[in-house]
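Is 6R9 placement plausible here? Inputs below.
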Amino acid sequence: MSEESLSTVLQQDHSFEPSDEFAAKANGKAEMYAAAEADHEGFWAEQARKYVTWSKDFETTLDWSGAPFAKWFVGGELNVAYNCVDRHVEAGNGDRVAIHFEGEQGDTRTITYADLQKDVAKAANALTSLGVGKGDRVAIYMPMIPETVVTMLACARLGAPHSVIFGGFSAEALHTRINDAEAKLVVTTDGQWRRGKAAPLKAAVDEAMNHGDHPVENVLVVRRTGTDVEWADGRDIWWHDLVDDQPDTHEAQPMDSEHPLFILYTSGTTGKPKGIFHTTGGYLTQCAYTNSVVHDVHPESDVYWCTADVGWVTGHSYIVYGPLANGATQVLYEGTPDTPHQGRWWEIVEKYKVSILYTAPTAIRTFMKWGDDIPAKSDLSSLRLLGSVGEPINPEAWLWYRKHIGGDRCPIVDTWWQTETGAIMISPLPGVTDLEPGSAQKAIPGISAEILDDEGKPFTEPEKVGYLVLTKPWPSMLRGIWGDPERYKETYWSRFGPKYYFAGDGAKYDAKGNIWLLGRVDDVMNVSGHRLSTAEIESALVSHPKVAEAAVVGAADETTGQAVCAFVILRKEAVEEADEPGEGKDLVQELRNHVAHEIGPIAKPRSIMIVAELPKTRSGKIMRRLLRDVAENREVGDVTTLADSSVMSLIKEGMSSGA
Ligand code: 6R9
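Reply from A.M.:
I modeled the complex. Tokens:
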């Protein structure tokens, strides 16, 4: 499609019908919608028995008597690691490749399900020898290497909930998360490969431990880069010293369906990150089901690749639990898309004959920027399905993805879900749904979504903007916020009353009844598909001795979706200093680094503007809307509710003088 015809497609509101060939083999079926509608619990009970092997069958599908605290598949028992590994070996598929690992440096490992079974057994035995048992929490701070997947599965095997902390988070962030979950063990690596260089990782764990007040007994360290590390005797243990010689068999114990599987921290509207926690039976059921009907994984023939980091929920559900429960073959890539060159991903697709690719709009937009000629150099004909997740995908990016990656033949599934929902909720079913570029379209079978107006009334009229809510409990829903049941009720079940799960996303219908997700309605930003809270970054900024006050907004950014823009008022002493020629720039750099230190490099503001005042209402609420206008270079909107309406002109002046 030429650029001209691309814009014609956009104007025409073109949708794409599934091909007969795809439809004939698709796992998703049109009848599923009606079946789930007719008998919601019956439908999920069927999926639970189809996708999961239960050591003890469940008695009750859903217990919602303690709403909004759900119990799914009550009375059932299962072991997640057994489901993800052992049962495939028992079924005679031990020789099937589970993981094609591709290191950034070009090192590779092929791990079959039989290998994975041994690796997980050894790790489970090693964790046991460190005193980790059922219910103990384990923090995992690791890059994208097979040991990370193995550690998560070993935890699941023992019933020890893991808390994976993204490798891009700082020592400070690590410290809060380790303490909140009271993790007894931390598993990490000496370093990680990033753009051809070894970046340290354990150093951040050491720094977190130096706070003194922590619950950690041991730190287990995988050697990945050979980077020098500090060593605390008695606390630190090398993985190869402990794990390698362990027996390679381990008896998996069944866990209750509602036993906690993991905690994963995500940004909320207040500064304190929320420990979202998920349990066993319902989570695994929905991960496996969606990986089957939405990603259309056929384990015997597909090569699947989800490019997310395992430190985010997408990595949990669609690298570890969903695909492995289904016995799929997948690619695990350690590095960045432009190392050693911008065609790295497409070489990986060609090399492993990847047939299903699941990635994020921010990556797609980056590839668009790099140019069509780069993917064109590789043979991408193995691809048959593409997926998108993390933020709204604009129609231009959708159409580019379809043409330049999908060869105009692959269906694209735009999948909406959240850390809290655990698994995909809104998405087309490939082979069933006519695809609408830019829209996630429809709740999948078994899920019920609606859009409410300000008063909490559901509506269906097109183009009107409202709030997305979920109206029925679903198996992989969060079971709460770790240690804070009240915050769970308040955040998700109070905005529109206890009947509606409030997702925090704006949404609308189009004339065809498709749902379009419009981004967050709360103070949460989405930068390259990562959730960051304005409050969290503001509190990092004011923790700097020179900062008196800070306001952070997410401004539209062509590549990353949104970018962090900060407005900062300095303390009196610092103002004078910053006025010295050249000092202002250094201070901005210092503040950016401070945010990286407090939270992590992903939270580093793209711009920081030093201002004398912030726009506030008479009740003292910062009007971020106006700051967003400034950050996005727009005419500043209505300022009549400001306590001091001259503030905005001062800020605008500051912008144009380049302060
Ligand atoms: C899986 C994941 C959740 C937030 C969510 C929404 C945004 C995710 C989206 C999407 C539009 C999609 N989001 N997928 N927006 N279309 N297909 O990303 O989880 O990190 O918790 O973020 O991301 O705003 O509320 P999480």
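Short version: The two ends are 44 Å apart (CA to CA).
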